[in-house]
Amino acid sequence: MTAAPTVRTLSAAEHVEFVRRQSSVSFLQTPAWAQVKPEWRAESIGWERGGEVVGAALVLYRQLPKVRRYLAYLPEGPVIDWSAEDLGEWLAPMAAHLKQQGAFGVRMGPPVVTRRWSAQQVKDGVADESVRRLDDVAPAERSAEGARVVAQLHELGWRPQAVEGGFAAGQPQYNFQVPLEGLDEDAVLQAMNQQWRRNIRKADKAGVEVTTASAGAEDLKAFHDLYVHTAERDHFTPRPLSYFRVMLDALSAEDPERIRLWFAHHEGDLVASTISIRVGTHAWYSYGASSSEKREVQGSNAVQWAMMRDALAAGAEVYDLRGITDTLDPDDPHVGLIRFKAGTGGEAVEYAGEWDLPLNRALYKAFDTYMKRRG
Predict the structure, then answer these.
(1) For 168-233, what is the HEC assignment?
(2) Where does 181-316 sit in CATH, by number?
């Protein structure tokens, strides 16, 4: 019988080495991400069995006001064997360790897929008047492992969290991804819808040039200026320039291939700019910006296609366009983003979502009330 793993604090070097041995780990679970979130206390923890680190997590601790107790948050983690028959062997020692560190509760986001829908199903759902959400469409795939994980978490006393609201809304439960494994550029291009292929050709014919940059101060400011312009146009609150400086410096220091800044220019004008991230075989489109001028040259499609080709060349198996809502209502303002992402020919992917384990029920309830009041 295999011994249950034990949990201890890891050094950053141990954590980085573990990440390097994995096929895929969320960038939110790399030790460098702690530097991007300086308002949180951070700790790397590891599961050890027979002297070998067999699991790891980045834990971010948010303090309860006026009390030296914390919510321990593991965004898109931990990185453990989620196929294990007894998840309690992994999660119980983690909870005990975090409680010793002063945690009154734990919040985690298992990187476990529960359902998938094809791009065609998403498109048909938007066109069908009787369909309002992804839940109204039978999925192309239901994950048996995902169902097992959800059932075990319920049995172990973990509580599923709402996708919206609560703790800063957490990480998205629904993402849109393009599978790349075993495909070449032609196959990925052919999977896209006609509009996407036409826009890529249009950008090429118009002379749009896509480049990557060293992310020096001038490059980053050019991205950020366009990003702020996009935020004003699309009515969202932009992150400050300093946030992106820290993110680029921290992730690049951990791995020079981890993060890249992309630019699409047309006749010298910046028409689109993005940030991509890659850990192992998983590549993400993380942030994007586009000009309100020269929309007809399709800079956004051009830069996305360049990032996909780069991911393919690097051996990535997934190109991840990150979060979507679960709405398929054509009158919902979010549906435009889903249409854009579905044009890539990928798939909508539902994860198990975020789960809480109260360790001190009174403090957990007080924190929950505090966060809801903050809105």
Answers:
(1) CCCCCCEEEEEECCCCCHHHHHHHCCHHHHHHHHHHHHHCCEEEEECCCHHHHHHHHHHHHHHHHH
(2) 3.40.630.30
Dist CA 277 CA 146 (whole Å): 25
Which of the four pLDDT bands, split at 50, 70 and 90, describes residue 163?
low
Same fold, 6-109+354-374 and 181-316: yes
Average pLDDT over residues 289-315: 96
For domain 6-109+354-374, the question of CATH label 3.40.50.970 is answered with: no
pLDDT tens per residue across span 114-134: 999 999 999 999 999 999 999
Q: Are 353 and 161 in contact (CB under 8 A)?
A: yes
The sign of the CA dihedral 187, 190, 193, 196 is positive
pLDDT tens column, 232-264: 998 899 999 999 999 999 999 999 999 999 999
Please classify residue 100 by burial: count the beta carbons closer than 10 Å to its beta carbon, then call 0-12 exposed, 13-18 middle and 19+ buried.
exposed
Sequence ranges of the domains in the chain: 6-109+354-374, 181-316
| Residue 207, C-beta contacts closer than 8 angstroms, at least 6 positions apart | 266, 267
pTM of the model: 0.94
**Average confidence (pLDDT) over 318-323:** 96
State the average pLDDT for the chain.
93
Among candidates 127, 47, 97, which has minimal Cα distance to 359? 97
